[in-house]
Hints:
Elements: H1 7-18, E1 23-25, H2 30-33, H3 37-49, E2 54-57, E3 60-62, H4 77-88, E4 92-94, H5 96-102, E5 113-117, E6 122-126, E7 129-135, E8 144-148, E9 154-158, H6 160-169, H7 171-174, H8 179-189, H9 195-205, H10 208-220, H11 225-233, E10 242-243, E11 253-255, E12 260-262
Parallel strand pairs: 5-7, 10-12
Antiparallel strand pairs: 1-3, 2-3, 4-5, 6-7, 8-9, 11-12
Helix pairs in contact: 6-8, 6-9, 9-10, 9-11, 10-11
Amino acid sequence: MKTQIGRQEAQVLAYTQMRKLQVVKIGDLREPLSLNARQERKVLSRLSQAGMITRVWRGVYLMPPNLPLGGKWSPGEFLALDALMATVGGRYQVCGPNAFNRYGLDEQVPNRLYAYNNRLSGERRVGSVTLMLIQVADERLGATETFQTPDGVTVVYASRARTLVDAVYDWSRFNGIPRGYEWIRQELKAQRVRAVELVRCTLDYGDTGTIRRMGVLLEREGVAETQLRKLAQALPPTSSPIPWLPRVPKRGTINQRWGVVENNQEDKPTC
């Protein structure tokens, strides 16, 4: 572990902490610290390799507000995500397992941060933070709420209703069926979410399969016909029904209205 730093590294840390600079890009330090391009690149590279600052993107670094004991520093997960998205000019919303946990649907705390976004796809590491980035079209971002962390980062989350719909829409990625069905039942019963919100999110952010499955579920839960009709009217004609439970053999009664094979009436979560 590197316990001592050189004069230039100390200057960089002192300057950024004095100026409360959270993000530094190549070129930002040359004039104020009288560095040439080569010196600036090298000092930032040395600090990054020593674990004292964190590289977000090529030529972009996150700086610690204060250097912790031992000299090592890594940003929190929300700061890492926010800085990365700002760097690439993207929009995002935290989703999936992190949103399930935030809304009390699942007690498991994820070891990575899942986010829909309109720029990047795949797993990325920023310092010690692992980000699972899911690239989607601009129109699939929305139905969000925000909160601010103690260190001042504004975090964008999928709303409660959107999170429930995502459990059905992105069931394969998030292991959302059948447990998502039970979550929706519980949230409706506890009045933490309204049927009208679920219908709106389904129409705005779901696909045909999502509309069909949500139609079956909401009809079973006794949702008003006016809301069910909105879903039914959005469905194209079909001669190929889909399974209610995707990982169960496609055998059972066909719900003609929704085009769904009701292949398991007892659809309690398996985990």
